[in-house]
Design a protein that fits this description.
Blueprint: E1 6-9, H1 15-26, E2 30-35, H2 39-50, E3 56-60, H3 66-80, E4 85-88, H4 103-131, E5 136-140, H5 144-147, H6 153-173, E6 179-185, H7 198-204, H8 216-229, E7 237-240
Parallel strand pairs: 1-2, 1-4, 2-3, 4-5, 5-6, 6-7
The protein binds NADP nicotinamide-adenine-dinucleotide phosphate.
C-alpha cells in the first residue's frame, strides 16, 4: 500500500509530520510536503524525499480555510495523479485559562486542529471515490483529549473532535474500502513542546512509565503500520504515549 502510492502529510515541514513524510518516502511513497509558512524547511524535506527516489511536492497553504486544503489536494492530483494516503497532522498548541479565552483564539485552534482535518478529508475522499481506490486516512489526535491539561481546553476539545470525526468518517467510507484511523500521541519531542522549561519537563518525565518523551520517527512507524499492515482496522485511535494512559 505504501510503495508507489501518493501521500499527503499536512504539517510536514517539521516535527512529527516531517518524520512521517520522510518515513513514507523511505518506504516508497510519493509525498506532498505541506507547510503554513516555513517553505525552506518544507523544501529541505522535499529534497530529502527525492533523494530516496520518490516524487515530492511542496505546497504552502493555510489549512484553516477550505481553500487552503483544496489547493493541497489539487496539487497532489495535478502533479502526482491522485491521493491514496492522507495524514492529517498539521496542528497548533494553545494554552489559556478559560476565563481569559479570546473568541478569536478559540476559533483559530478549532480551525487549525479540527476544521482542517474535515476540509482535507472532504477533498481527499472525493478524489479516492472518483478513482475508486482503497485509500487510507490517518488523523493525529492527542492524549490531551483523554487526560486533559489545565489551560488546554481548546486544544483538548479540538483533539477530542478528531477522535469522534475519525469514528464517524470510518463508518461513512468503509464500504468503499477506505480506512480511517487516528493516533493519539503523548509527549513527542518537537517544537510544539519546545516552550517547556527543563524543570517542567523534569516533572513530567517521572509520570511517563517509559520515562522519556517519544520521537517523531516512532509516530511515523505507527502511521506506516496503520497504512500498510492494519488492513482490518478502521475507526480506531492508537495510543502512543510511553504508557501514560495505563498509569
Ligand atoms: P509542530 O512541530 O509545531 O509542527 C506543526 C506543523 O503544522 C508545521 O509543519 C506547521 O507549518 C504546520 N501548521 C501549523 N498551522 C498550520 C496551518 N494553519 N496550516 C497549515 N499548516 C500548519 O507540531 P508537532 O509537535 O509536530 O505536532 C504535529 C501534530 O501532532 C499536531 O496535530 C499536534 O497537535 C499533534 N501532537 C503533538 C504532540 C507533541 O507532544 N509534539 C503530542 C500529541 C499530539 P510551518 O512549519 O510552516 O509553521
Amino acid at each position: 500500500m505504501i510503495k508507489g502510492s501518493n501521500a499527503i502529510v499536512t504539517g510536514s515541514s517539521r516535527g512529527i509530520g516531517r518524520a512521517i513524510a520522510l518515513h513514507l518516502a523511505r518506504r516508497g511513497a510519493n509525498v506532498v510536503v505541506c507547510c503554513l509558512s516555513r517553505v525552506d524547511a518544507a523544501e529541505e524535506v522535499r529534497e530529502r524525499a527525492e533523494a530516496m527516489g520518490v516524487r515530492a511536492v511542496v505546497v504552502q497553504s493555510d489549512l484553516a480555510t477550505e481553500e487552503g486544503a483544496r489547493l493541497v489536494v489539487e496539487r497532489c492530483v495535478e502533479e502526482l495523479g491522485g491521493v491514496d494516503i492522507l495524514v492529517n497532522n498539521a496542528g497548533m498548541s494553545h494554552l489559556s485559562p478559560i476565563q481569559s479565552m479570546e473568541d478569536r483564539d478559540l476559533e483559530r485552534v478549532l480551525r487549525v486542529n479540527l476544521f482542517s482535518y474535515f476540509y482535507m478529508a472532504k477533498h481527499c475522499v472525493a478524489d479516492m471515490l472518483r478513482r475508486r481506490v482503497p485509500g487510507c486516512v490517518v488523523n493525529i489526535s492527542s492524549i490531551m483529549s483523554m487526560i486533559g491539561l489545565a489551560g488546554g481546553t481548546a486544544y483538548a476539545a479540538s483533539k477530542g473532535g478528531v477522535t469522534a470525526f475519525t469514528v464517524c468518517l470510518a463508518r461513512e467510507v468503509a464500504r468503499h474500502g477506505i480506512r480511517v484511523n487516528a493516533i493519539a500521541p503523548g509527549y513527542i519531542e518537537t517544537e510544539m513542546i519546545g516552550w517547556m522549561p527543563e524543570d517542567y519537563k523534569a516533572k513530567i518525565i517521572p509520570r511517563i512509565p517509559m520515562r522519556r518523551f517519544g520521537t517523531g520517527e516512532e509516530v511515523a512507524r505507527a502511521v506506516a503500520f496503520l497504512v500498510e499492515d492494519a488492513t482490518y482496522m478502521t475507526g480506531q485511535t492508537l495510543i502512543l504515549d510511553g504508557g501514560i494512559m495505563i498509569d
